[in-house]
């Protein structure tokens, strides 16, 4: 019997180690979370609009976005994403190594719902993802699809 995930998360991240850690954190969760990952903003937009190889991609409940990626970075992705009327209600949480004030301000100005600096410590990273999960997937009321 297949168990359907309770929540779908799109992870927009180009660093394999961070993808692995994020998946590991969600796997330790008490919730069923289906994590999909793409390597940059171009792929993320294709995923969200069911284009190319993503024609059957599910609509995510939450997007985790790195800022510094090849082809299309997180800032450019946010600009394009917020123009998509049918999707822009999906919360986008910036999850990045940058703690620069200009990145924080720019992310919120472009419509990010939150900004988290990736902890370098693995235990703290997992705790951050689990706290994010508790807040965004359990506590917050999101619009229906």
TrEMBL record:
Gene Ontology BP terms: phosphorelay signal transduction system
Q: Which InterPro entries does the entry mention?
A: CheY-like_superfamily, Sig_transdc_resp-reg_receiver, TCS_response_regulator
Q: Where's the Response regulatory domain?
A: 8-133
Entry coiled-coil feature ranges = none
Renumbered to this chain, the signal peptide range is none
Which key words are in the record? Phosphoprotein
Q: Which residues carry this modification: 4-aspartylphosphate?
A: 66
Spell out the PANTHER family in the cross-references: RESPONSE REGULATOR RCP1, RESPONSE REGULATOR RCP1-RELATED
**The protein's name in its UniProt record:** Response regulator
